[in-house]
Amino acid sequence: MTILDSPRFLNKVLLVDAATSAATGMLMLLGAASLAPLLGLPESLLRHAGASLLPFAALVAFLGSREHPPRPAVWAIVACNALWAIDSILVLLLGWASPSLPGKLFVVAQAAAVAVLAELQYFGLRRSRPAIA
Fold it and tell me: 36 near 43, Cβ under 8 Å?
């Protein structure tokens, strides 16, 4: 049995999402003043994005800890992750910010990571059975 066949696959992906969201949120929230000059991103953008990740991470951790996470809630997480990834790329494409090269790499890397998590969550949802009422 591979991890993809595990009945807990979706839960594990949700918990990875929660942990990475919390870590990234704390980094951006608490380190915004130090990161802004390095990344060339506005301090307020980093601070607000970081702050928004913390309640998201708590919700995703809660869902990941359930034996059968509610499917509509997980679909909402997939949608939020997809929107985060798209918005991150739009920041670069539409010139909403003028990041440095490290900033561009940071934006692309976190967008790619979030997109992969969304895809894995989608895959987990498709493979999991709906909870019996």
Answer: yes
